[in-house]
């Protein structure tokens, strides 16, 4: 068999025009080399990007995550992956998927894929999901309120009509005692019935609270945060909010219902993120540290417009809302949950932004047995 | 039963204490009140020729208020309907009013509000029934006129003088005069304006401020 003479492989061309973006990062995070496919993602050519820190193209909100990623790259021998938002020369925002390895003193080798489209559809889906959940919750609350209204208006209707009749009997003076007392005792019966409806509602809510208490566990605070971190992180990233998390190592464990405290965290962060919509500088930080009494103090702080002094007093009242379409129940429910756990929830007015804090008592020895 | 003279108030609500309370309030009107815990029972008992009004809860176990209203509309039942509800369901209220409900009371309501509402309904119903009876009577009298007399009546109420009518029908003014007397007698009209009212009631003359007012409606 005759072998045709093969031309030598042009590795430079293979590198530059590979279907994937390739990138070499030195220890300081500067681009040592980038192929043309990679540079084209940023609407630049490879020469223009070489020697500059890759972080220049990373979206502000993702800088911190990117720095952590570079640390991970250096410290591990595994393939490290990161979804990160970048900005092209034309100001277009993309989400790229980085996969990289670094070994020894060699520059880190990374591949670069544009996943903006997939990312956007995932974001869209998450948004719809959260809207649905919100709607379902509001609907449930609305239906509950409507049926409660009916249950109460029914006997109240009888009370008002019976009292009016009794008053009429009095002013006419012609009615006999029996008619008069008949109307009054009917009003009384109906009022008692209305009060029993409220009693039943109380029992119902108490049952719910008893179940919630039975589900409490003694856990480190990290675990509480972990249950909802993915949710909060996704919410922050979808809204271009930089999220930072700082949990002290020295915290005592807490005895809590994970879902309820998680709900409080989601609620507070959601309020912050919503309040910062459209702001250039949108940062959200969740901090946890022990307070002087040995309780766990969790704070949620944002760089939004903050809480104005005139609504500070009413902030935790039910049905108090500034949001279009809001029920005004979020903070009221959150405060209830924290107080049921033996803690406190309050708002502070820092020089800028909003600051919500809550405390949770350290788990007592007896709590472990539950 | 005396179907012409009196009005009956029908009340439907599935809550017995409320039914009793509303019954006590309605005593003021000194009219018979019939109470039903279910819509179906009320449907069976309703006499279409009987005057009065109907008060019904919008939500009931066997049939909702809108369904009840539709049933009444299908039977051309002229009873005015007042809805009551313990819910804040404005949508249903709007729907009910659009389909001809007279009014809407939200529980809890005061006796005077109920009475004002019912008085209005009864007054409206009485007027409607009176008008329907007048129309029936006017049509009956008109039907007893000869075709020629009917023509003369239409021309008289259109404002034509006897001479004009005579020319139009190609008869003598004296014959017109003769027909006219019969028309007045048979229609039991004391004056031309009486005759006009009767013509409007039996639908052969239309009252209007438009340019074509007084238009002769033909046959």
UniProtKB/TrEMBL annotation, chain B:
CDD domains to which the protein is assigned, alphabetical: LuxR_C_like (cd06170)
Pfam families (alphabetical): GerE, Response_reg
Ranges for domain HTH luxR-type: 138-203
UniProt entry keywords in alphabetical sequence: DNA-binding, Phosphoprotein, Transcription, Transcription regulation, Two-component regulatory system
GO biological process, one term: regulation of DNA-templated transcription
GO molecular function, a single term: DNA binding
Modified residues (4-aspartylphosphate): 57
Domain Response regulatory, residue spans: 8-122
PROSITE patterns noted in UniProt: HTH_LUXR_1, HTH_LUXR_2, RESPONSE_REGULATORY
PANTHER family listed in its UniProt record: DNA-BINDING TRANSCRIPTIONAL ACTIVATOR DEVR_DOSR
Name of the protein in question: Response regulator
Organism whose genome encodes this protein: Alloalcanivorax marinus
Lineage: Bacteria, Pseudomonadati, Pseudomonadota, Gammaproteobacteria, Oceanospirillales
């Amino acid at each position: 068999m005759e072998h045709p003479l093969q031309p030598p492989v042009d590795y430079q061309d293979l590198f530059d025009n590979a279907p994937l973006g390739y990138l070499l990062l030195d220890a300081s995070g500067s681009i040592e080399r980038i192929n043309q496919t990679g540079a084209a993602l940023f609407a630049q050519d490879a020469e223009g990007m070489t020697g500059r820190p890759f972080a220049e193209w990373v979206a502000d909100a993702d800088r911190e995550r990117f720095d952590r990623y570079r640390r991970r790259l250096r410290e591990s021998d595994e393939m490290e992956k990161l979804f990160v938002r970048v900005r092209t020369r034309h100001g277009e925002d993309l989400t790229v998927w980085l996969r990289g390895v670094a070994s020894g003193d060699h520059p880190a080798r990374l591949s670069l894929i544009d996943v903006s489209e997939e990312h956007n559809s995932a974001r869209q889906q998450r948004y719809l999901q959260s809207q649905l959940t919100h709607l379902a919750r509001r609907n449930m609350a609305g239906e509950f309120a409507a049926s409660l209204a009916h249950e109460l208006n029914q006997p109240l209707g009888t009370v008002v009509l019976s009292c009016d009749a009794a008053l009429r009997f009095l002013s006419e003076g012609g009615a006999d005692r029996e008619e008069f007392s008949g109307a009054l005792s009917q009003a009384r019966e109906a009022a008692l019935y209305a009060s029993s409806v409220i009693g039943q509602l109380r029992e119902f809510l108490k049952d719910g609270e008893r179940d919630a208490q039975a589900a409490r566990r003694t856990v480190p605070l990290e675990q509480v945060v972990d249950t909802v971190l993915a949710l909060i992180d996704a919410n922050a990233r979808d809204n271009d909010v930089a999220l930072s998390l700082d949990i002290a190592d020295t915290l005592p464990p807490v005895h809590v219902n994970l879902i309820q405290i998680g709900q409080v965290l989601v609620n507070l962060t959601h309020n912050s993120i919503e309040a910062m919509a459209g702001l250039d500088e949108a940062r959200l930080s969740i901090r946890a540290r022990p307070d002087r009494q040995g309780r766990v103090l969790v704070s949620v702080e944002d760089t939004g417009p903050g809480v104005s002094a005139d609504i500070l007093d009413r902030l935790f009242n039910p049905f108090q809302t500034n949001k279009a379409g809001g029920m005004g129940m979020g903070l009221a429910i959150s405060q209830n949950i924290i107080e049921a756990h033996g803690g406190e929830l309050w708002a502070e007015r820092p020089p800028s932004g909003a600051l919500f804090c809550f405390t949770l008592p350290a788990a007592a020895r007896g709590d472990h047995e539950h | 039963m005396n179907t012409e003279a009196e009005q009956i108030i029908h009340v439907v609500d599935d809550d017995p204490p409320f039914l009793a309370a509303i019954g006590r309030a309605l005593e003021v009107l000194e009219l018979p009140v019939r109470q039903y815990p279910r819509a179906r029972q009320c449907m069976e008992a309703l006499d279409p020729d009987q005057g009065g009004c109907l008060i019904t809860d919008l939500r009931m176990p066997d049939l909702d208020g809108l369904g009840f209203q539709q049933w009444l509309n299908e039977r051309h039942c002229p009873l005015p309907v007042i809805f009551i509800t313990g819910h804040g369901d404005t949508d249903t209220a709007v729907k009910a009013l659009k389909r001809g409900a007279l009014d809407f009371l939200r529980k809890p309501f005061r006796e005077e509000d109920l009475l004002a509402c019912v008085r209005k309904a009864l007054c409206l119903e009485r007027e409607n029934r009176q008008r329907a009876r007048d129309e029936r009577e006017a049509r009956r009298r008109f039907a007893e006129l000869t075709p020629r007399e009917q023509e003369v009546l239409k021309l008289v109420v259109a404002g034509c003088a006897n001479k004009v009518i005579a020319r139009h029908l190609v008869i003598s003014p004296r014959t017109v005069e003769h027909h006219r007397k019969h028309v007045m007698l048979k229609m039991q009209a004391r004056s031309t304006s009486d005759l006009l009212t009767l013509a409007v009631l039996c639908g052969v003359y239309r009252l209007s401020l438009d340019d074509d007012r007084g238009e002769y409606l033909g046959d």
